[in-house]
């Protein structure tokens, strides 16, 4: 199975996207096709043995649309100057047209040459010329409407096209009657209706285009993060190149103030890099030889040389953009309902309009009145508002999540996350950092703690024990330099020793004190530290114990607050770990989790998740390791921290780029707001159509409530704009 994302031209409303989606899914070799109206693209999963890109693009053309090739980037071009000028010109023409056609009705000064009562033929010709200009302006609407009708996928353009052409042709007939001397037909002209309907549709599209561009801004910010050029070092010579010229293995240079061009590994130098666009961490990260760098990171203060590893579409940024795009192209369950309704909407409106036209004639209404009502019904119906209700909200929310370091792979997660009532956490690497850190220092000497840790860290850096890495990390985080070590000695099973500034230090477990005959008056303190889950490191000179240091896999920052908030919101929290029960319970108690399931094998983790789901729990699983991947895949929603393994991230539905568990609260909040917004959009869309179509049919005429085609087109535009503006409110989520 292969997947491709194609850019699609010619889609104007949800009936377009639904029609294309249905057509593609009917084709042999297509496993699944999803069309995104907002992003103007189609994601197609297909059998490469049967289909290729050319054949899929042929299907797109057969459905009445045009493929612009593979979707490569998000373009936010804005409205070009030519389009703006054209829109301004037709705005002026629309005012002139309205003045000529209706000025006399509201007692405005009338141009005698164009007076409908004294010069009806001149009046007709003026309206005809202006109407033809607007029909040329809206040719794309009429063309799309016709194409979609022929391909049995009628859309909003079809409704407008039928209405405009019907009223225009009837006006032509009326004009012929006027030329033949029957001046009563001057009141049966609808040239201005045809023209103004097109103008309002164009106005709506103009505003709609600007609004859709706004929904893409957060994603486009990611695209713009990487620099356009970079400096390559080859044979000692520096050369500026474009990103397309960079190949894997090339050595690149980054100086202070410059951005990293591609993902790679530092081979020389060190610097502090700003990776906040990926991790959300505002504090610059220290990078040295052997560390990885991410494309788009800003170099604050150092000179580094790095080897290109992941370029082009393989880069972290490209992967994030791909995930966000694919997520926006998946359908949330609530969207499928709206799409289904929209698919039946246009044919239903056409049937209602035709039946109303026939009924009007049967009850003795004039042909002019019948055709006006027919056109009004077609124009007032608004499938756009129905179709935009869900995808706009989803795309905006995707952007909000991506901008806050939450990568959501499927749009249905944005609908379903708010259902979560149980969250299962792995311990090591998820609730904790998954690496040993200095948890507590009990200093019994007259040496300052910072100086003591410099001495101990310098000696530990020479050893091979995993605990040594905790001390090295401590020195790096606190920007403490290592000292020169002499007479370093590794004492198997006990610890290490070495001389710093002519002072011998002995570092290790309690047994190392016995070896050197050093008294240990701190056994009670050791027991207390051990109860808290610490591994104990004794520091002594040749005579006395200087300090006790507790080393532990410490709890992630903000974890306690996150669990507290989840408990407050009545979401059950469970720790699921392969570690021993005593250690797990100690950490669980510290962070506020009451239920612990310990000593669990990877296969048993997935089984536990399934058991929880069977008890009517909507389960979110949060993990980071290979052993968590079956459980992540089994949960209703799988969440992986970014520091986790690739397989864990592949198995998950959501990736927390910040490695901050508070993002889970953010995801649930965005989900609640998104669903609420979609429901509001759908309500107003349904309410508008349920109200306006009966009014357009003339059901409330006896109450003095009725509309004509021009008012109908304006109302339709307002309906779409209301949905768009409501969806854009989601950008304000904090």
Structural description of this entry:
There is one protein chain. The chain has 734 residues and is an alpha+beta fold. The protein has four domains: 2-70, 2-Layer Sandwich (Alpha-Beta Plaits); 81-219 and 324-394 and 678-732, no CATH class; 229-314, Distorted Sandwich (Calcium-transporting ATPase, cytoplasmic transduction domain A); 437-552, 3-Layer(aba) Sandwich (Calcium-transporting ATPase, cytoplasmic domain N), CATH 3.40.1110. It contains 25 helices and 26 strands. The strands form five sheets. It has a seven-stranded mixed beta sheet with strand order 14-26-25-24-15-22-23, sandwiched between helices. Strands 6-5-7-13-8-11 form a six-stranded antiparallel beta sheet, with no helix packed on it. A six-stranded antiparallel beta sheet has the order 16-21-20-19-18-17. Strand 20 and strand 21 form a beta hairpin.
Summarize the structure.
With 734 residues, this protein is α+β, with helices and mostly antiparallel strands. It is built from 25 helices and 26 strands.
Key terms:
734 residues, alpha+beta, Alpha-Beta Plaits, Calcium-transporting ATPase, cytoplasmic transduction domain A, 4 domains, six-stranded antiparallel beta sheet, 26 strands, 18% strand, elongated
């Amino acid at each position: 199975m292969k997947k491709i994302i194609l850019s699609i031209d010619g889609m104007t409303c949800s009936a377009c996207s639904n029609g294309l989606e249905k057509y593609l899914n009917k084709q042999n070799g297509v496993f699944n096709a999803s069309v995104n109206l907002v992003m103007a693209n189609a994601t197609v999963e297909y059998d490469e043995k049967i289909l290729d890109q050319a054949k899929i693009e042929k299907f797109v053309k057969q459905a009445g649309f045009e493929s612009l090739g593979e979707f490569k980037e998000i373009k936010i071009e804005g409205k070009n100057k030519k389009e703006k000028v054209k829109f301004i010109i037709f705005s002026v023409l629309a005012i002139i047209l309205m003045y000529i056609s209706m000025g006399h009705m509201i007692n405005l000064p009338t141009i005698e040459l164009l007076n409908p009562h004294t010069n009806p033929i001149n009046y007709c010709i003026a309206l005809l010329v202006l109407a033809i200009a607007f029909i040329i302006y809206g040719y794309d609407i009429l063309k799309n409407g016709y194409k979609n009708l022929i391909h049995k996928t009628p859309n909003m353009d079809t409704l407008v096209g039928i209405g405009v052409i019907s009223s225009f042709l009837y006006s032509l007939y009326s004009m012929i009657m006027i030329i033949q001397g029957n001046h009563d037909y001057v009141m049966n002209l609808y040239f201005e209706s045809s023209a103004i309907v097109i103008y309002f549709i164009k106005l709506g599209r103009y505003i709609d285009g600007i609004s859709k561009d706004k929904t893409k801004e957060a994603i486009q910010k990611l695209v713009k993060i990487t620099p356009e050029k970079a400096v390559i070092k080859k044979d000692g010579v520096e050369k500026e190149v474009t990103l397309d010229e960079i190949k894997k293995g090339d050595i690149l240079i980054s100086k202070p103030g410059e951005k990293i061009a591609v993902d790679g590994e530092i081979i020389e130098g060190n610097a502090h890099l700003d990776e906040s666009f990926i991790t959300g961490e505002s504090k610059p990260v220290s990078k040295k030889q052997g560390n990885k760098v991410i494309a788009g990171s800003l170099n604050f203060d150092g000179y580094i040389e790095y080897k290109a590893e992941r370029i082009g579409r393989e880069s972290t940024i490209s992967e994030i953009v791909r995930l966000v795009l694919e997520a926006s192209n998946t359908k949330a369950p609530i969207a499928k309902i709206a799409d289904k309704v929209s698919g039946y909407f246009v044919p239903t409106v056409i049937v209602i309009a035709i039946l109303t036209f026939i009924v009007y004639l049967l009850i003795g209404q004039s042909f002019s009145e019948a055709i006006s009502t027919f056109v009004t019904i077609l124009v007032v119906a608004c499938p756009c508002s129905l179709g935009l209700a869900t995808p706009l909200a989803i795309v905006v929310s995707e952007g909000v999540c991506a901008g806050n370091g939450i990568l959501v792979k499927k749009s249905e997660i944005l609908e379903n996350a708010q259902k979560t009532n149980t969250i299962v956490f792995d311990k090591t690497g998820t609730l904790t950092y998954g690496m040993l850190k200095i948890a507590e220092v009990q200093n019994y000497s007259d040496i300052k703690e910072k100086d003591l840790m410099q001495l101990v860290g310098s000696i530990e850096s020479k050893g091979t024990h995993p605990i040594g890495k905790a001390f090295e990390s401590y020195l790096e985080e606190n920007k403490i330099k290592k000292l020169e070590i002499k007479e370093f000695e590794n004492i198997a099973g006990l610890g290490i020793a070495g001389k710093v500034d002519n002072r011998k230090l002995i570092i290790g477990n309690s047994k190392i004190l016995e070896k050197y005959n050093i008294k240990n008056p701190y056994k009670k303190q050791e027991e207390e530290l051990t109860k808290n889950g610490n591994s104990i490191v004794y520091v002594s000179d040749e005579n006395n114990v200087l300090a006790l240091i507790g080393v532990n896999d410490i709890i992630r920052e903000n974890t306690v607050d996150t669990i507290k908030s989840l408990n407050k919101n009545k979401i059950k929290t469970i720790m699921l770990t392969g570690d021993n029960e005593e250690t797990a319970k100690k950490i669980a108690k510290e962070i506020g989790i009451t239920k612990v399931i310990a000593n669990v094998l990877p296969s048993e983790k997935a089984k536990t998740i399934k058991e929880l789901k069977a008890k009517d729990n909507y389960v979110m699983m949060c993990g980071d390791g290979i052993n968590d991947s079956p459980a992540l895949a089994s949960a209703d929603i799988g969440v992986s921290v970014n520091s986790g393994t690739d397989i864990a991230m592949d198995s998950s539905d959501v990736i927390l780029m910040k490695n901050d568990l508070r993002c889970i609260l953010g995801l649930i909040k965005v989900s609640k707001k998104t669903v609420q917004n979609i429901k509001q959009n759908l309500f107003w869309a349904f309410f508008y159509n349920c109200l306006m179509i009966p009014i357009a049919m003339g059901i409330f005429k006896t109450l003095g409530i009725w509309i004509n085609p021009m008012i109908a087109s304006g109302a339709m535009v307002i309906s779409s704009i209301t949905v768009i503006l409501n969806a854009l409110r989601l950008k304000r989520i904090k």
